[in-house]
Automatic annotation (TrEMBL):
Signal peptide: none annotated. InterPro entries: ASHA1/2-like_C, START-like_dom_sf. This is ATPase. Belongs to the AHA1 family. Residues 11-145 form the Activator of Hsp90 ATPase homologue 1/2-like C-terminal domain. It holds the Pfam family AHSA1.
């Protein structure tokens, strides 16, 4: 099945977009309410959409597979519980790649979600993710362009990897 590809132009510098994806204290401001982020190959890329129950609707166990500072990151992905039977087994995880390209007026962010299987369950999961990634990128754009909070500025150096609950 063809990869899902979505992109957005964010009116923010490339490094600000990078930090939004690779800092737990930042990703929790626009993507998920809790996260464990360790931006290195093999490091955790775990988002918890219901922090009170970290065993459901989460990416627990997902990891970064590639990290190219400021330009590209890739990670394994689990779908929501509705698609767990299809796509959340360790040998059937899908793969997400995020690229950040500086362009006039900001940064072009592209998400490519690949690794879909065949069959009705996979097709339904792919359709759901196509809409979800659009919402995720809209949330990123809104958060970074709002001018509020710490998403606009360089992070403190001691917060390279973190868990935020």
């Amino acid at each position: 099945m063809e990869a899902v590809e979505t992109q957005v132009l964010v009116k923010a510098p490339q490094e600000v977009v990078w930090w939004a994806w690779t800092r737990a204290e930042r990703i929790t401001q626009w993507f998920a309410p809790a996260a464990t982020i360790d931006p290195r190959p093999g490091g955790a890329f775990e988002l918890f959409f219901n922090p009170a129950d970290r065993s459901r609707d989460c990416t627990a166990g997902c990891t970064f597979t590639a990290v190219e500072p400021m330009t590209r990151l890739a990670f394994t992905w689990k779908g929501p519980d509705a698609f767990a039977a299809v796509m959340n087994h360790p040998d059937r995880l899908t793969a997400v790649t995020v690229t950040m390209e500086p362009v006039e007026g900001g940064t072009r962010v592209t998400v490519v979600h690949a690794g879909w299987g065949e069959g009705d369950g996979w097709a339904e999961a792919r359709r759901w993710h196509a809409a979800a990634w659009r919402q995720v990128l809209d949330s990123l754009k809104g958060a970074l362009e709002s001018g509020r909070g710490d998403l606009c500025c360089a992070p403190a150096e001691d917060q390279n990897q973190a868990t935020v609950e």
